[in-house]
Amino acid sequence: MENLRNLIVLPFLNTFAGDGEGTLRVDVTAEDGEHQIKYEGKVVGSLKIDEGFRIDTIHLSELSKRVAPILAAGKDLIEYQLKVLDWVAEAKDIAGDAGDWVGVYYKASYILKEDTTDLVLGPYLGRSTDHIRIPIDKGFCGMALREEKTVNIEDVSKDDTHIACSITTKSEIVIPLKDSNGNFVAELDIDSDKLASFNPKLEAELQEFALTFPSL
Which residue in 53, 99, 103, 131 has its CB near the most CB atoms, within 10 A? Predict the structure, then answer.
């Protein structure tokens, strides 16, 4: 699973400051060394201090206070997305040979707190895709959350509204996902390179599994 974790795609995390490892690098005057940043008693990052720069303790403390909530939010979101990636891997196991591409799309209003009805791509396993953001009125992904029901398409080529994550996709199932309050906030999207891959038995199994979706 560690290799899968390294492949996680979180296109919306660039809103958080950092170098990808929980370490914030800033151009400030400070003593040589490293200053830990804590948030609610937990280390969430550190300031790397380059040689020759100086900053007094008061300003360093104030800077830490300002960036700590940002780093904490970023780390919490990454930890949550890693949990969802594990969940996506389980969904792929259930889908078996039918699961050529398996991923989660979120309502941007849920995961990013944006004032929009767009869907944004979360963790996925499979080929890379350009469809990072999808309007809710487009494609089968939009239909599933718009109508709050499972969409099972045996042959995607017969519908010109289909938005394919891959040109090899022939059939697709999209299952709406609820948070702990019972609100539809995301969806499980599975694409197959074979026609009619999702029979009633597999659809029921995936719908049952969808009830275990980890809420933010």
Answer: 103
